[in-house]
Design goal:
Blueprint: E1 2-6, H1 9-22, E2 27-30, E3 40-45, H2 52-55, E4 61-64, E5 83-84, H3 89-107, H4 110-118, E6 135-138, H5 142-151, E7 158-162, E8 171-175, H6 180-185, E9 189-192, H7 206-211, E10 216-220, H8 229-238, E11 241-246, E12 266-268, H9 278-293
Parallel strand pairs: 1-2, 1-3, 3-4, 4-5, 6-7, 6-9, 7-8, 9-10, 10-11, 11-12
Helix pairs in contact: 1-9, 3-5
Bound molecules: NADPH dihydro-nicotinamide-adenine-dinucleotide phosphate and oxalic acid.
Oxalic acid is lined by residues 66-68, 86, 91, 275.
Keywords: NAD, Oxidoreductase
InterPro entries: D-isomer_DH_NAD-bd, NAD(P)-bd_dom_sf
Pfam families: 2-Hacid_dh_C (PF02826)
Length: 308
Amino acid sequence: MTFLYKADPARGEQWARLFAQKAPELAFRVWPDVGDPATVRYLAAWMPPDDPTRTLPNLQVIFSVGAGIDQFDLSGVPAHVPVVRMIEPGIVEGMVEYVTQAVLTIHRDLFDYAGFQQKREWREMPVRAAASRRIGVLGLGVLGTAVLERLRLFGFPCAGWSRSERVIDGVDCHAGIDSLDAFLGRTDVLICLLPLTDATRGMLNARVFSALPQGASVINVGRGAHLDQEDLLAALVSGQLDSAILDVTEPEPLPADHPLWTHPRVRITPHIASATRPESAVDVVIENIRLHRAGLRMIGQVDRARGY
Ligand code: NDP
Ligand code: OXD
């Protein structure tokens, strides 16, 4: 029985070493060294091969090596092959760190200080209390919840928005499209941690920006396609938005001449907010194989109808 890994080969070597220790009964292979395709039961991939069950006829489970699965073309994956996204402590820790630094960058005026430094200007901005900076997170799943739980410790008033009702201690939770404007109206720093689906594509657009208080900021750590980049530029020019921190763009990377690269109120990182950590991810994948063999639902099993 083979476990096939199809993503970054250097990480694949780390997965291979961990599988050899923790699940030696499985033959572990790194794409394109598939061996006999008929023996492959489990696939972990960032991008599965086209038509995966034709290439791997006895495939039983597809694991995403990332938290999102929007990059998968699920149309060719038969319903009997479950798709599992990555939920593991390393990815959560990384995201909490990244979003915390992004919020503090905005909160402590580091865009302004970067401008002053360029001009060799020693100039102070008034320090604003955390209690006066309202944070709002789109998406109250594994990552959005963990981010809010950390941010509220700084004293920021915290709110979140999701599809279904959620309850998170100390967080003002909103659910559904009818509550979106109320959520946006009280949000000074908007953080996107939604999955990319037909319902959320292009969601960070002029309409949403106009519902935020003037001078709000946006942090996009979901997917590039959540954001209408033209609308963002227009909102920065008009002053409706103050600044944006983007870990994801559309496309990735942005073309070299894209105006977002050089905008003084935009910071871009190359989709590094968080990444799966092999040491913790392999434990979760092995546990999921055990659950699958026992006929149980796996951790992070995707609801294909919902798209996440
Ligand atoms: P989850 O599936 O745990 O959470 C998704 C949340 O979004 C849920 O609260 C869900 O609502 C909400 N949601 C989904 N669709 C809608 C909608 N139409 N309207 C309102 N709310 C909606 O995902 P994670 O927290 O694990 O991950 C979120 C995303 O973060 C990933 O899909 C990925 O795109 C991105 N990511 C980015 C990384 C990076 O490095 N930049 C790294 C890892 C992830 P409900 O609670 O009702 O289901
Ligand atoms: C993920 C990502 O989805 O890396 O995990 O973006």
